[in-house]
User: Which sequence fits this backbone?
């Protein structure tokens, strides 16, 4: 190309929220942009960076890109402060009061380099950068790490309140079908709305925070989604009416795999991975195992934990269960474990503290996924062609699980129920009774996902457009 010798290499700052489910896809985006010849600075909190470099291969993985670098910024919390969902409010407050001014200074003073082209911030970060801050000169892109259907639901909550559809009027109102969410008429019940909507007062601060953060998405220069047209096309179209400059480039892990077909997956773990479960899976018959994981920040009381455990054993099916060390509240209490549970687990179960999830889902022994419906887990299951039982826990997950079961027909929705009988029944429904039906729809969706990240696919094209647009910004 003429004048090529004068072209400036674009330089992008990427900053995720310090959670596994946010760091994972943003590191994948960082790798994809680096492969496309863009220089990347990846910003972590010291806590995430320490765990990431301890338990994953990111340093060697990214060392092949000479201009790539990791930098850190404080989250304002003490190093030993818990980082599970229970402590989310502490984190948001400290990010706003401590991290926000530092980030602003960094962006204004050129801390990341005078060549910085743009920043891709976690889409939940609009609260970290003020739209009218004229001193921040670079374009800010927002990467919404939730599903498009949940983001669109958040966009519509304000109108639901105006229409008198919210607040939800108690437990007896939870199954009321919402007829007027544009583009999703008659899909959602009150119980499928993001968890912030489960309040009696619509002025609730968490609900208002979520509404405002979502509305402010339209202030981003552009918005990126880890999704694809064949899965969420109609909803993405709705969001484009408010955020016209939108890129749908997911599933990102599949896009990366398509670009690097001969490489092993990138390990971005904040926890130590226990690969022994892959050997255990090698010894199980095809499609016989239910894989159980509730992601990186879910916590549950001992009672629920025991219901899951009984249900899995009672199902009579094989199970591989991720029990994070910080997942169960009061886990180390002096509680006796019934002998039949120990025995059932020895016979048919295997537990790990953290699994290589993408590899586990791809394993032929796995026939289904009991998940909390985090967006990454959902996409990973979609790409692996594995149906799901959804026990959604918070936030966007409640919308995702409804779409998995009622729109995409990829599994069963178990939200708000946690008893051993239901767990056992649904595991059997997924792995045995309705196996063919679910495996067929899961295989169809997996094909569409893989097609979207290949040349000619929608996500492949949108990623190219993103690279071109960032490059144009740098000229
Ligand atoms: N994950 C993993 N091993 C595990 C459990 C989870 O690698 O044992 C990964 C999973 O593959 C996904 C991420 O952690 O990429 C969890 O993200 P998700 O959005 O599903 O849920 P969150 O943790 O944000 O609630």
Assistant:
């Amino acid at each position: 190309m003429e004048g090529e010798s004068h072209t400036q290499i674009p330089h992008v700052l990427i900053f995720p929220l310090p959670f596994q489910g946010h760091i994972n896809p943003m590191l994948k985006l960082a790798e994809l942009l680096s492969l496309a010849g863009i220089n990347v600075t990846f910003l972590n909190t010291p806590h995430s960076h320490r765990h990431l470099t301890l338990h994953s291969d990111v340093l060697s993985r990214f060392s092949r890109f000479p201009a790539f670098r990791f930098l850190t910024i404080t989250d304002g919390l003490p190093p030993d402060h818990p980082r599970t969902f229970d402590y989310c409010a502490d984190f948001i407050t400290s990010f706003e009061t401590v991290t926000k001014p530092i980030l602003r200074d960094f962006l204004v003073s050129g801390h990341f380099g005078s060549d910085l082209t743009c920043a891709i911030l976690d889409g939940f970060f609009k609260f970290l950068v003020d739209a009218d801050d004229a001193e921040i000169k670079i374009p800010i892109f927002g990467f919404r790490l939730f599903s498009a259907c949940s983001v669109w639901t958040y966009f519509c909550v304000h109108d639901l309140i105006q229409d008198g559809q919210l607040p939800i009027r108690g437990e007896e109102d939870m199954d009321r079908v919402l007829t007027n969410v544009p583009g999703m008429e008659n899909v959602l019940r009150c119980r499928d709305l993001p968890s912030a909507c489960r309040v009696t007062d619509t002025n609730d601060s968490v609900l208002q925070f979520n509404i405002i953060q979502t509305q402010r998405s339209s202030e981003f220069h552009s918005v990126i989604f880890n999704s694809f047209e064949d899965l969420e096309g109609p909803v993405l179209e709705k969001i484009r009416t408010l955020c016209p400059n939108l890129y749908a480039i997911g599933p990102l892990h599949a896009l990366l795999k398509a670009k690097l077909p001969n490489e092993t997956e990138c390990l971005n773990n904040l926890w130590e991975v226990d690969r022994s479960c892959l050997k255990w899976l090698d010894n199980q018959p095809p499609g016989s195992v239910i894989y159980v994981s509730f992601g990186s920040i879910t916590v549950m009381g001992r009672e629920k934990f025991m219901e899951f455990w009984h249900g899995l054993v009672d199902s009579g099916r094989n199970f591989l269960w991720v029990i994070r060390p910080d997942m169960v509240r009061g886990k180390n209490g002096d509680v006796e474990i019934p002998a039949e549970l120990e025995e059932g687990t020895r016979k048919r179960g295997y537990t790990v503290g953290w699994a290589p999830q993408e590899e586990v889902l791809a394993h032929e022994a796995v026939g289904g996924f009991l998940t909390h419906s985090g967006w990454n887990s959902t996409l990973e299951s979609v790409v692996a062609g594995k149906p799901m039982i959804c026990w959604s826990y918070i936030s966007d997950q409640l919308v995702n699980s409804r779409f998995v079961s009622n729109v995409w027909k990829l599994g069963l929705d178990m939200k708000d129920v946690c008893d051993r009988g239901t767990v056992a029944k649904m595991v059997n429904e997924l792995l045995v009774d309705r196996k063919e039906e679910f495996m067929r729809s899961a295989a169809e969706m997996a094909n569409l996902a893989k097609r979207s990240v290949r040349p000619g696919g929608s996500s492949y094209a949108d990623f190219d457009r993103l690279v071109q647009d960032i490059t144009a910004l740098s000229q």
Notes: DSSP finds 17 helices and 13 strands in the chain. The radius of gyration is 22 Å.
